[in-house]
Amino acid sequence: MILHVTWKDAVSVDEWTHIDEIVPTFHMIESVGMLVKEDDDTLVLGLNHDVDSGNWACFIHIPKDMIMVRTEMLMGRME
Prior knowledge:
Blueprint: E1 2-9, E2 27-38, E3 42-49, E4 56-63, E5 67-73
Antiparallel strand pairs: 1-2, 1-5, 2-3, 3-4
């Protein structure tokens, strides 16, 4: 199954910043990938799947509490 997910991600700032200039914020992210695994708390999307070995690469773990929109996409497979 292919999913398109819109989710909130954390923002990290690695420089000295005066407190008056700090604004609480987050980034809205869109991710598309094949559903690798899912449990009550987390969704795992993968980009690359080695069909022969069953291994995955380029996958991301997204906390479900951060997901704003989840859309299933149609997937065609060449035989």
